[in-house]
Amino acid sequence: MELKFIPLDYGYFDYQGRNFIQIIGRNEKNQRICVIDSFEPFFWVILKENLNEKKISELRKKIESIKLEDSERRTKVEKTEVHEKNFLGKKVKAIKIFITNYKDGHAIADKLDFPEIECRREYDINLITKYILDKKITPLDYFKVSGEILSNSEEFSGIDSILDVDICIKAEKIQKIEHEKEIEPKILAFDIEADEFEIGQGEIVMISLVSKNFQKVLTWKKVARTKDMDFVEFYKDEASMIEAFVENVKKISPDILVGYFSDGFDLPYLRARAEFHKVDFSLGIDNKKPVFARGKYPSARITGIVHIDLFRFIETIYSQYLKSETLGLDEVASELLSENKIDFDHKHSSKISEEEWLDYFKYNLQDSVLTYKLAFKLWPDMLEFSKIIQEPLFEITRAGMSQLLENYIMHNLEKYNEIIEKRPIYDEIGKRKQREKVEGAFVLVPKAGLYENLAIFDFTSMHTSIIISFNISKSTLLENKEKESYESPEVELEGKKQVFHFSQKPGFLPEIVKELVDKRKKFKKEYKNDPNPITKARSNAVKLLTAAVHGYIGFFGARYYSLESSASILGFVRKFNKETIEKVNNAGYHVIYGDTDSVAFTLGEKTKEQVKDFLKKLNSELPGIMEMELEDFYKRGIWVTKRTGDFGAKKKYALIDEKGKLKIRGFETVRRDWCALARELQDEVLDMILKEGNAENALKLVKETIEKLKSRKISKEKLIIKTQLKKPLEEYKSISPHVTIAKRMLEQDMPVNIGMLIKFYIAEPKSNKKELVRARARLPDEPDDYDIDYYLDHQILPAIENIFEVFHISVDDLKGKKQMKLGEF
DNA sequence: GGAGGTGACGTACC
DNA sequence: ACCGGTACGTCACCTCC
User: Fold this and answer.
1) Cα–Cα distances in angstroms (integers) from residue A433 to residues A403, A414, A430, A438, A731, in the given order
2) Which nucleotide is nearest to A458 if distance is taken from CA to C1'?
3) Which nucleotide's C1' is closest to A727 (Cα)?
4) Å from the A601 CA to the C7 C1'
5) Which residues contact A655 (CB under 8 A, 6 or more apart)?
6) pLDDT digits (tens, 9 = 90+) for A125-144
7) Could you report the per-residue pLDDT of A450-471, keeping only the tens digit for each?
8) Does the CB of A731 fall within 7 Å of any strand B atom?
9) Of A651 and A152, which is predicted with more confidence?
10) Which of A237, A353, A567, A743 is the most core-located residue (most Cβ within 10 A)?
11) Per-residue CB contacts under 7 A with strand B, chain A residues 434-453
């Protein structure tokens, strides 16, 4: 029997002490397929140099006799093989050790303390990753599998009758085939509403479910049905509502179950309530409950159904493409779908009036509708990440950038015959985290002012191109200088100034990164020629991976961590930026500013053509694949002074291009922790100044705004300050306004969660005494008067003062009041 | 008891 | 534990005189 399938979900089970892989996927007839594949687990020991054949064969005998007696299984070394491999770029002899059960890899490795062994590797890799590496059954590709169909079979303790699949096949051979079209997954979105925010503390009032041609809200509240409530199903109590949820999931049988923050809220809540009522919560196609992984980032895994928490994917990966200031469902849906959540004032279900229930149901349904639509919107990105990195969707949607890149690297090492380096253990991580920081990039102090006629050059993928051009990595770092080697600029590391040398023999990591850069170019072109969501996602995915390489090398949890490499890369970054600044100045331009990989300068008398020719010349002088590009020409730009000190502020500027489009960096306008009034005013002031080249109209606007503020004509909405709560309240050493407000919210039984934006405004002091800002902070619905002086001195003026200073206009001019002279007292 | 420095904190840039 | 260094600015907190 032979059939086609696309792998979606990977799991494994033990049978007679051995590991078997259980892949759940779909075929072209849209049937759900389970493929069971064997897996021969193995890891490596790398031998010390110069061992003779006899020694090696003696060692193999010793290794082959290893058995694990105290294990719950009978695990032993099944066989060994000797291979010529590479490890960290060096040729090594290694023994491949096959064992009965991968889960005992650690225990067996612990017994391998023979003096002939240099080190043991690849027993710390996730079993599924190891399987994909070994057999190349990569997620979301098409495969042809031949083997025995299991139907009411005794095989694997009757697994085929337990699993809810259309076909279960025991694989003999699996072959990748050319894919016809991308899979269109069956997605089911869900969302719950509960009475208490604390998980399990209240009752779940309703659950919404949305899939293709399917919209439902399940509830147990006794509400009089109105004609608009067709989508609502009523149940006798919370327990039977949860049962109905499980039944619906089983009936729809989706490939993907998607929620928004469902790892942290919806699924744990459902589990807690199911446990409370002793309701069966077996969502898996194997009739098992979801498996919850605890930790800082909890996750919920369901056998056979890929559970995706969209919030997780957006937070770690997709947020860089978004403008949204918060990553809540409402704002993200608004940006990506131009659709919003339904406005509904959340309250305890006991306080909801008869008429309000319909709105609450609609609200709940809409959340699932948005989640469903977002899942489709982001599907190309999840698909492409999964295919490029070759890891399953569940992992891809939860991994950080470093994890993704590391997986990409691991899945691309075979070509280099490399044995995979170990993950740092606890002690090592501790050591790495304690080390002092390496010096970072260079930022040029700008001279404050308004400038005309500018251009910006920047290096394309600077850190990554340095890694490739100078072959920088853990494995290419030389202990001693060699004749043919790349030399880093002098850098300070561990208190001493030093220079590092890297081999000119290409290392596997820089090579893999180079391939990534080539793919980036290829996919970018592909997208240009054929713009669609898939080509766009593909191009973006490699772009993100390419950009993450330097961060990965300096990340304490990385397998290929290398502090020397990181310090060297940053040394080159500083060198090239400084050199460029100098060259630009020497060529008769005037450099205004530079940060890390960029340089901004005025053209003076020079023409654009001259600038472009000059760029060509600069590029011809750059080594390796390093390259600079013209970011753009700008009509005007403004740099301001710091509020403390009278020199130019870094990372704070505004530019206007020739089409009149503004590019604002660092200013309060782009900071979400400033009130809308200050942000909008600053934005308009910058716009006027950059368009007009002078401050006259802007000054008028400021004076008008100040007058409005003073006469309380500004709505309170514009004065709300939003600050994120970053940690549990009790961990704050310094009690700032937003912490005070969060505490008050808690007292009023309002939901307070880590990560949420705390909103408040500043009211007039109650007494004459000078009160702390936090004493004057109020919740948005508290009815006090806003503090005019606070908003003037702490929001409006700080936001615009330094801009006007460029035009020699002082604060007193701004306030529009004649100054009190000393003589008047 | 007010001035000024410093640390904690949040946010942005690259 | 889940990319890191540079930088700005606010507010609370502490010390000093």
Assistant:
1) 17, 30, 5, 12, 21
2) B14
3) B9
4) 21
5) A454, A456, A634, A636, A637, A638, A662, A663, A664, A690
6) 999 999 999 999 999 999 99
7) 999 999 999 999 999 999 999 9
8) yes
9) A651
10) A567
11) 441
Q: Is the CB of A555 under 7 A from strand C?
A: yes
Query: Which nucleotide shows the minimum CA-to-C1' distance to residue A456?
Result: B14
Nucleotides of C under 7 A from a protein CB: 1-13
pLDDT tens digit sequence for A280-311: 999 999 999 999 998 778 899 999 999 999 99
User: For position A739, what pLDDT does the model report?
Assistant: 93
The residue among A529, A526, A556 whose CA lies nearest residue A538 is A526
- List the structure tokens of A715: 């709505």
| Phi and psi torsions of A655, nearest 5° | -130, 155
A424 touches strand C (CB under 7 A): no
* A472 backbone φψ class: left, alpha, beta (φ>0; ψ -120 to 50): beta
Tell me which amino acid residue A804 is.
Answer: F
Sequence-ordered list of residues with C-beta below 8 angstroms from that of A673, at least 6 positions apart, any chain = A721, A722, A723, A724
Q: How far apart are CA A10 and CA A281, in angstroms?
A: 21
Residue environment code for A329-351, b if the CB has 16+ CB neighbours within 10 A, otherwise e: bbbbbeebeeeebbebeeeebee
Question: In this structure, are strands A485-487 and A501-503 parallel, antiparallel, or unpaired?
Answer: antiparallel
Q: ∠ at Cα A404 (A400, A408), nearest 5°?
A: 170
Q: Which nucleotide is nearest to A644 (CA to C1')?
A: C9
Nucleotide nearest to A402 (CA to C1'): C3
Beta-strand pair A256-259/A306-309: parallel
**Does residue A670 approach strand C to less than 7 Å at its CB?**
no
A664 touches strand B (CB under 7 A): yes
Residue A179: pLDDT band (50, 70, 90) is confident
Could you check: is the Cβ of residue A291 within 7 Å of any atom of nucleic acid strand C?
Answer: no
Q: What is the pLDDT of residues A358-416, one digit of tens each?
A: 999 999 999 999 999 999 999 999 999 999 999 999 999 999 999 999 999 999 999 99
The per-residue pLDDT for A810 is: 83
Q: Considering only CA atoms, which residue is closest to the C1' of nucleotide B14? A: A596
Instruction: Please give, one letter per residue, the 3-state secondary structure of A257-287.
Output: EEECCHHHHHHHHHHHHHHHHCCCCCCCCCC
pTM summary value: 0.94
Say which nucleotide is closest to residue A643, CA to C1' distance: C9
Q: Residue A456: what residue type?
A: I
Closest-approach nucleotide to residue A725, Cα vs C1': B10
CA A634 to C1' B10 (Å) is: 31
Nucleic strand B within 7 A of Cβ A671: yes
Beta bridge partners of A417: none
Instruction: Name the DSSP letter for residue A795.
Output: I
User: How far, in Å, CA of A571 to CA of A463, rounded?
Assistant: 10
Give which of A475, A441, A504 is closest to A565, Cα–Cα.
A475
Q: What is the pLDDT of residue A768?
A: 65
